[in-house]
Amino acid sequence: xxxxHELQFPLLAKSNRLHKLVSKANEENxxxxxxxxFPGGSKAFEICAKFCYGMTVxxxxxxxxxxxxxxxxxxxxxxxxxxxxxxxxxxxxxSSIFRSWKDSIIVLQTTKSLLPWSEDLKIVGRCIDSIATKxxxxxxxxxxxxxxxxxxxxxxxxxxxxxxxKIEPVPKDWWVEDICELDxxxxxxxxxxxxSKGRMDDVxxxxxxxxxxxxxxxxxxxxxxxxxxxxxxxSLVETIVCLLPCDNDNTVCSCSFLLKLLKVAIxxxxxxxxxxxxxxxxxxxxxxxxxxxxxxxxxxxxxxxxDIDLVQCLLNRYMSxxxxxxxxxxGESILAHRTLLNLGKLVDDYLREIAHDPNLGLASFxxxxxxxxxxxxxxxxxxxxxxxLYLEGHPTLTKAEKKxxxxxxxxxxxxxxxxxxxxxxxxxxLRVVVQVLFFxxxxxxxxxxxxxxxxxxxxxxxxxMNGDEEYNNRISQLKVKDEELQNKNGKLNKKNSKNSRSGMxxxxxxxxxxxxxxWSVGKGQQGENRSSETSGSSNSPTTSVVIGDTKSCGSSLRxxxxxVS
Length: 565
Prior knowledge:
The protein is mainly alpha-helical. Among the domains are: 1-137, no CATH class; 201-284; 288-321 and 336-412. The chain is built from 29 helices and two strands. It has helices at 9-14, 16-27, 41-52, 64-73, 85-95, 101-110, 117-120, 123-135, 184-197, 202-216, 221-224, 230-243, 255-267, 272-282, 308-324, 331-335, 338-354, 362-369, 381-393, 399-406, 416-423, 430-452, 460-463, 467-487, 489-495, 497-505, 507-521, 525-534, 555-562, and strands spanning 2-4, 33-35. It has a two-stranded antiparallel sheet with strand order 1-2. The protein is elongated and about 115 Å long.
């Protein structure tokens, strides 16, 4: 509210409203005129008063909106004077402000404190249209100053025109940094206008949205969900999601950025439509993500550290999209499909990240591992490390549970270094160790056979052994032997209880001895017959194991597990 005790003729001559108010005051014998809700306050009135008295008035991007709203309030229009203040301010806006990139942004920022006057006078809309139009200009034709990534040497608040000579070409996204300073409601209106013009590349729009999100969304979860900012962050993420362009070719926004938006949307409890839209977009390009991006905190009633169900849902959607798109998830075609190979790596890396969670159930771990086809995981080293971490973080697993989780690993797809680690891993069941050692022996034998047949290529097909086929045959025989071993397990435990403790302490020695026995198996049929003939009783710790002979004493393998020769 402004109060003026003495008014002179120049004011009345320029302001129709003041003229009417003074006339009314004179009729009521009142010496005071009150101007309620005067836009712009005393500084804006001072500009109007100076103009009425013929004094020099300085207008710029910071005060022009307030002066225009004040002039409108005072009705300083052409009806009372042809060259009145409203006319002169409009000329200044059209000839200077709306022609300047930076001035348009500054003016737009000042309009918020002058609502609804600035909106009713269409200053907000004209600023938005000016900014949106300039973003669509061919970068080669840009001659005005911009602050792309704040790399210019000039201060950001200095308004200067660049010379015609450009040292470097102007990038397409030159404008995204400047409009990041706007509030989310004004930013939304600009982006909608930019998109409506249809001249902006969707990739640039995606980059602009990412830049704005990085500028305003806090990295800290506590800051994100704090009572003081949660509503603003909720509005922000919902606005950015609704502005995301259609990504038909999956190139507009990175999967990492979309996952970060999804994380924020979940934490601030954004509306379901925003989360659903993000999940739909992410499921189309999940293979681009990294494991860290998937570490989204779990919500109640989940008890795990991270939201495992969400990741499982994304994996299921991704595989469904692959099937619907006509990709054959079989054989060699999948090996040539880099996206699914990347997905396999992502799943294994994610399993390693969450494996230590004590609340992670075995079913969830196994379900995630089996969400992808076998051929999307040509190497099992990373999966082995994930399983090992799970065994380490869950020491109370039963024998059946260990067998189930270790069944995920295909020992034929382990590298030599990983196989060596597995052979000495105390957390693995004995059966897995035997499988690892045996296949390494088969692989070594096959390599030796290939080396011997190098100079006899014509007959190499008869010499080189089929490692996979022999491995499968011998493992089938091992299963038969294991059943026999289990039947005698109780007796052996009683008889060798003392040796049991020493055997567990010398696990590497146990692995070497198993390997020595397995190595003797591959020496040939003559060696097998000799071993069968000389094999002793089942209770002897030095008895040889002949995998292919179903009559040989199976308890020796279990005996060696608990005793030292």
